[in-house]
């Protein structure tokens, strides 16, 4: 629309210039001018309208300018920036994995002697399988042969290590947990230990109980075979201290003895101790401990110190 209007404007200007250069006939001018002035009516000549139209609004028609859009998009002339293109994937082959060595287990727990477990070693990142040497940090706890077969020997902890010919190594921790069950000669005098405890700690007139008294307060205890059995009962109405020491003939009876001693504690807590202070001592300051075939029950305000003294015997 704007371009058509501009074209008409230019054409009108050209016609006006041509008409001005040619000039009107003098006779025609004199005959026409007075008539136009006297009558006061606008000229009916159709050619005068386009001549005056460009001069009325010259400022409203901007000069024709070239199109703001180039015929060829800039993107076709300018190459893409190199940085916008992703780098091509590397053609280099991935690096080979580093040589490695591992065991199928990192920890073994044995609960009985002479139990075994076969450890297996694996390698990665190598074509040739190297030789392996097996060692134990403590052969007395866990032994290992040349093929990685581990054998439990005694309670404790040991580390099994496998070393390859090319300098690699892997290890496994072995824990042996069980109580020795073999019979052994009496080497702890429980009577001497009881005398030391009773002399150092107040037990309120303790009395060494006979079988009848033991059966009355510890049902089933006398039926268990024992190398040593010492039961000290409190002779005062306010019972807040007792001491029981035993060495059973068969180590398998240790748990049965502990159950009988725990039943005694439960009875005293549930009303057998009578006095609140005594009941509290039985509830909070009673201990049952064992070491091999030896068992101790102690009820005393300083029970933990007596337990430490008991373990020091072994």
What's the layout of helices and strands?
Layout: H1 2-22, H2 26-39, H3 48-56, H4 74-77, E1 100-103, E2 107-110, E3 116-118, E4 121-124, E5 132-136, E6 142-144, E7 149-152, E8 156-164, E9 169-176, H5 190-200, E10 206-208, H6 211-217, E11 226-234, E12 242-248, H7 254-272, H8 276-284, E13 286-291, E14 294-299, H9 303-311
Parallel strand pairs: 2-9
Antiparallel strand pairs: 1-4, 3-7, 5-8, 6-7, 8-9, 10-11, 11-12, 12-14, 13-14
What does this structure look like?
18% of the residues are buried. Helix 1 packs across helix 3 and helix 7 (254-272) runs antiparallel to helix 8 (276-284). The radius of gyration is 58 Å and the shape is elongated. The protein is built from 9 helices and 14 strands. 33% of the residues lie in helices and 24% in strands.
Helix and strand string, N-terminal first? HHHHEEEEEEEEEHEHEEHHEEH
Low-confidence stretches: 26-78
Distance between the termini: 116 Å
| Fraction in beta strands | 15-25%
**Can you give the mean pLDDT?**
78
The total of helices stands at: 9
Number of strands: 14
Main sheet specs: 5 strands, antiparallel
Quick one: overall form?
A: elongated
What order do the strands of the largest sheet run in, or round the barrel if closed? Answer: 10-11-12-14-13
Radius of gyration: 58 Å
Q: Which structural class best describes the helix and strand composition?
A: alpha+beta
Helical content (DSSP H or I, runs of 4+): 25-40%
């Amino acid at each position: 629309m704007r371009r058509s209007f501009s074209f008409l404007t230019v054409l009108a200007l050209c016609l006006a210039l041509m008409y001005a250069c040619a000039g009107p006939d003098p006779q025609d001018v004199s005959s026409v001018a007075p008539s136009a002035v006297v009558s006061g009516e606008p000229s009916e000549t159709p050619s005068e309208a386009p001549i005056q139209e460009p001069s009325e609004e010259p400022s409203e028609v901007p000069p024709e300018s070239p199109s703001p859009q180039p015929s060829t998009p800039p993107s076709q002339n300018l190459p893409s920036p190199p940085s916008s293109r992703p780098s091509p994937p590397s053609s280099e082959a991935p690096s080979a994995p580093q040589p490695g060595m591992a065991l199928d287990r990192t920890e073994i727990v044995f609960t009985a002697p002479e139990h075994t477990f076969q450890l297996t070693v694996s390698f990665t990142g190598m074509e040739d399988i190297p030789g392996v040497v097996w060692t134990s940090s403590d052969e007395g706890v866990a032994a290992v042969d040349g093929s990685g077969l581990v054998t439990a020997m005694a309670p404790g902890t040991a580390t099994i290590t496998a070393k390859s010919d090319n300098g690699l190594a892997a290890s496994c921790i072995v824990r042996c947990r069980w109580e020795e069950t073999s019979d052994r000669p009496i080497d702890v005098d429980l009577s001497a230990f009881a005398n030391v405890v009773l002399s150092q700690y107040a037990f309120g007139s303790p009395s060494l109980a006979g079988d009848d008294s033991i059966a009355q307060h510890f049902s089933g205890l006398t039926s268990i075979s024992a190398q040593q059995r010492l039961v000290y009962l409190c002779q005062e109405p306010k019972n807040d201290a007792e001491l029981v020491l035993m060495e059973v003939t068969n180590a398998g009876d240790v748990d049965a003895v502990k159950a009988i001693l725990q039943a005694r504690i439960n009875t005293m807590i549930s009303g057998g101790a009578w006095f609140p202070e005594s009941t509290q001592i039985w509830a909070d300051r009673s201990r049952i401990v064992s070491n091999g075939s030896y068992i101790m029950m102690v009820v005393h305000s300083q029970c933990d110190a007596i337990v430490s003294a008991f373990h020091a015997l072994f």
